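Task: sequence design from structure.
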């Protein structure tokens, strides 16, 4: 007979090992010696293989484990050999005895059922009605011992199930129970600690109290409420973990004990705060209320004054249900207000208001035609490759707006104030006269040592340009900054300007990618996305145009401009109202052209255009409106004189001789 056969034979004859209590037709426990008398002690079995001692010596154990407990054996080999000896079976020869695989947690269901039958054998009910005790299968064992502590003296205990494999054994005798180690042990836990009445979280039809003890939870339930018992404040994380998967049907009420010990009270307060913060993170409605009144805990309050305790429970529930009802009505009202019908009046008012809503022409008629008149409140981005004049282009627009009497705030995060002023003065020396030979470059304006060599006409032209610029310079406000101007600084400047002048200005930022990062530890893309979203919010909050100048990815230096050209383009593409790109005219793809031929053509085109600019001639550029949230897209052509910082459309409505290739292009 091998080991498995011998094991099966011993298990099949397990009941023969026990002495019978013939009077009560049960078995006598070989460890504690109790029978199945009128108190329900002794051992029972459902399958004649697994046995339970109702004093707590063992639960759902087979004969090998019971013999191990009886003789103090822990190794399976020793248990197996002792069982074979006691049953009178020879051990298998030349076969190594191996331990069986670990079994699941024991099932105490039968134990709870039997213990509950004897709940009326004790008056230690802690003020809780028999109906509630039976509802939760609370039981009583007069001489319970911890199944994992055979040295423990028997003691009367309330058995409070917390799960199929766990329960609390609460001392039901006089005074305190002191174990064999000299330690007070009025509450003994068996099995892995569980949350009491956890099913209430998903099944309750009223707000659920979260309390520390199982008896406290039972007290609230007995008073007509619903409650869950943590078992210990150390189980806060366990509850929060459960709530990630269990969505409570009702709000939760955190109601911890009123402990008189300052240290314990501090720990309880921290646990309560941790639970409250954790529930808010999980978006679970919660309240913090004291259900204990001036007493230590809910059960003490119940036993001191049941009527007052019941009134407190009902008062808290009524208060919370009222608050929840009001909150629900507020949410319904907000939802109703989101219905389109509630917005029609505001819609009509917006149309009426739009009649006087300001817009700002750019000074370029064809571009304004595409933009339906010019710049409106919203977020604009202008991008181009390096040295293509995007700052100069936007500065000319800013000057035109200022000249028409509107304020412009310029945040220059790369160039100095005097450099910007010199660019504008240089442009004016070119545009205010008919002789281009008199016009001056930016350096020609800024370098004072050159003035002694200028002619009277040149000096007069410079003075005329400065005076012209000064006339509308009262509407231009320049903030310099190199890496130290952030999005909050920009918002603060705008707020202050509106407060002091009563005007909502046009805002120009040169340029987006060097705004001081909101988070130094974030990536460039994350900081750019944050800046774009805040600029969008700024344009919306104050109903003003915000123009951000943006750099391009290097991959687009020899490719047609498109949405993906904008560096760190995710938020720029999605959050902007208008996207404008500048490129050399002729960079668009040509049908049937190979990549190699296109690259060669574009490189030659760029070379020619740059050469023209260096010699004071116009570079032919294309202004492409790539995105226009509230209007059409399209492109216009423009002449750029980089030497004198001047842009001009090659035709005006008065000039009808322009060739077709220079006329604005609108998509079909």
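Answer:
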């Amino acid at each position: 007979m091998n080991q498995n056969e011998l094991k099966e034979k011993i298990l099949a004859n397990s009941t023969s090992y026990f002495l019978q209590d013939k009077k009560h037709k049960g078995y006598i426990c070989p460890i504690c010696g109790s029978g199945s008398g009128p108190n329900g002690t002794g051992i029972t079995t459902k399958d004649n293989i697994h046995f339970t001692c109702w004093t707590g010596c063992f639960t759902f154990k087979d004969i090998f484990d019971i013999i191990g407990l009886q003789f103090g054996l822990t190794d399976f080999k020793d248990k197996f050999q002792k069982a074979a000896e006691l049953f009178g079976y020879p051990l298998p020869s030349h076969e190594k005895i191996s331990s069986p695989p670990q079994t699941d947690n024991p099932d105490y269901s039968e134990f709870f059922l039997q213990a509950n039958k004897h709940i009326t054998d004790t008056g230690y009910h802690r003020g809780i009605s028999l109906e509630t005790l039976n509802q939760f299968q609370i039981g009583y064992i007069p001489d319970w011992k911890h199944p994992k502590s055979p040295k423990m003296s028997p003691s009367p205990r309330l058995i409070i199930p917390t799960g199929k494999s766990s329960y609390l054994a609460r001392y039901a005798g006089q005074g305190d129970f002191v174990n064999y180690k000299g330690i007070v042990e009025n509450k003994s836990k068996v099995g892995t600690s569980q949350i009491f009445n956890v099913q209430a979280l998903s099944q309750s039809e009223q707000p659920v109290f979260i309390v520390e003890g199982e008896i406290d939870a039972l007290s609230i339930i007995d008073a007509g409420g619903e409650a869950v018992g943590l078992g210990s404040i150390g189980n806060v994380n366990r509850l929060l973990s459960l709530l990630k998967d269990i969505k409570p049907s009702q709000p939760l009420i955190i109601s911890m004990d009123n402990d008189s010990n300052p240290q314990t009270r501090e720990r309880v307060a921290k646990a309560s705060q941790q639970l409250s913060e954790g529930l808010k993170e999980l978006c679970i409605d919660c309240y913090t209320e004291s259900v204990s009144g001036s007493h230590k805990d809910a059960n003490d309050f119940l036993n001191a004054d049941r009527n007052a305790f019941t009134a407190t429970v009902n008062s808290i529930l009524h208060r919370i249900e009222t608050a929840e009802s009001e909150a629900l009505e507020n949410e319904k009202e907000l939802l109703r207000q989101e219905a389109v019908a509630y917005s029609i009046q505001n819609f009509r008012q917006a149309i009426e208001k739009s009649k006087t809503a300001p817009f700002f022409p750019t000074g370029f008629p064809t571009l304004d035609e595409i933009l339906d008149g010019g710049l409106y409140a919203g977020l604009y981005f202008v991008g181009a490759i390096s040295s293509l004049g995007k700052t100069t282009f936007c500065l000319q627009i800013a000057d035109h707006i200022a000249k028409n009497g509107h304020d412009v705030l310029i945040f220059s995060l790369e160039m100095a104030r005097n450099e910007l002023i010199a660019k504008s003065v240089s442009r004016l020396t070119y545009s205010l006269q008919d002789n281009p030979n008199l016009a001056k470059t930016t350096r020609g304006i800024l370098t004072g040592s050159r003035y002694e060599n200028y002619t009277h006409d040149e000096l007069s032209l410079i003075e005329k340009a400065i005076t012209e610029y000064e006339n509308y310079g009262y509407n231009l406000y320049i903030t310099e900054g190199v890496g130290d101007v952030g999005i909050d600084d920009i918002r603060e400047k705008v707020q202050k300007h509106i407060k002091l002048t009563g005007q909502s200005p046009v805002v120009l930022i040169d340029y987006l990618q060097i705004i001081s990062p909101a988070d130094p530890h974030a990536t460039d893309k994350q900081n750019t996305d944050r800046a774009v979203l805040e600029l969008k919010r700024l344009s919306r909050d104050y109903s003003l145009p915000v123009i951000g100048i943006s750099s391009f990815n290097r991959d687009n230096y020899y490719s047609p401009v498109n949405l993906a050209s904008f560096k760190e383009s995710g938020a720029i593409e999605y959050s902007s109202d208008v996207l404008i790109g500048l490129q050399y005219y002729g960079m668009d793809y040509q049908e049937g052209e190979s990549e190699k031929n296109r690259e060669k053509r574009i490189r030659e085109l760029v070379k020619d255009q740059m050469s023209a600019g260096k010699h004071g001639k116009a570079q032919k550029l294309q202004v492409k409106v790539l995105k226009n949230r509230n209007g059409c897209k399209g492109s216009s052509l423009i002449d750029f004189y980089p030497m004198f910082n001047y842009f001009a459309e090659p035709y005006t409505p008065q000039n009808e001789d322009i060739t077709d290739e220079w006329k604005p292009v609108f998509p079909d």
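The chain has 21 helices and 21 strands.
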